[in-house]
Amino acid sequence: MPINHYENFPVASLLLPANLREPVEAIYAFARSADDIADEGDTPPEKRLEQLDTYRKALDAIESGGLAGMCGQPPLFARLARTILNNHLPLKPFYDLLDAFKQDVKKKRYEDFNDLADYCRRSANPIGRLLLVLYSADTVENLPLADCICTGLQLVNFWQDVAHDWKKGRVYLPLQDLARFQVTEEDIAASRCDERWQALLAFEVARTKAMLNTGAPLARRLSGRIGWELRLIVAGGLYILDRIEAVGYDVFARSPRVDSVGKLAVAWRALNYPRPSA
């Protein structure tokens, strides 16, 4: 179970009921391809934004014309249109995803945690909300829990990939937190894992664990294989955070992943997932 951006979420795994695999794959294909436009290669920013605008126009066409609006559109968008219409999915989460991807092209720093959380609200939370609609579980009680899990998983991605993001000119650690722990961008560039860095990342890891644990009861609320899928996902995120702690927060030297041994640990944690208190 890789913990890396949208791979944090179920991508039509065998645990999902067969009737949900196609819509989940269609959502993933849209998100993954748009994210690649924003994030991969050396295309100039202006060109990336132009390409993402074609995604927005496709959503506009779905909103105004349904399947008829897909005439002449690439198969990716026609497939998405069928998924949205057949499953009565709201369009706002898809627009939110595009807003986040466009922001990634233009914005490289985040002032404080609220600023970062707002990005996660659009870059991660829409996936969880769409999946809850597919599961017929998008209740007012479940949606905030899904948001906690999705934002938490996005933060896990950020903390394990600090060095990778730095190479792309991005710092997702809030500037306010850097200042609080007296860590500079020069320290990140030098891969300096000293007491200041360890204190900073310990703070971020603890906050992220609390967020995942807040959302965790959702995995018990959802029944059957869907619940198992979510337990594995949350357990995977918590495992990565444990590994970051275990390496002394030195994510510069090694970016923790779920290896073969880790998969067993994740499965064990999911199997012994705590039941919500009465």
Overview features:
278 residues, mainly alpha, disordered N terminus
Please describe what this structure looks like.
There is one protein chain. With 278 residues, the protein is mainly α. 68% of the residues lie in helices and 0% in strands. The chain contains 14 helices and no strands. It has helices at 18-39, 45-65, 75-87, 92-106, 113-123, 125-134, 142-160, 162-167, 175-180, 185-189, 195-215, 218-221, 224-246, 260-271. The longest helix has 23 residues, at 224-246. It is globular and about 60 Å long. Mean pLDDT is 87; it is low at 1-12.
The gist of it:
The protein is mainly alpha-helical and 278 residues long. 68% of the residues lie in helices and 0% in strands. The chain is globular.
Instruction: Give the strand tally.
Output: 0
Oligomeric form of this entry?
single chain
Cα end-to-end separation: 31 Å
Low-confidence stretches: 1-12
The share of residues in helices is 55-70%
Mean pLDDT: 87
Judging from the principal axes of the Cα atoms, what is the shape? globular
Question: What's the layout of helices and strands?
Answer:
Layout: H1 18-39, H2 45-65, H3 75-87, H4 92-106, H5 113-123, H6 125-134, H7 142-160, H8 162-167, H9 175-180, H10 185-189, H11 195-215, H12 218-221, H13 224-246, H14 260-271
Helix pairs in contact: 1-3, 1-4, 2-4, 4-5, 4-6, 5-7, 6-7, 7-11, 7-13, 11-13, 13-14
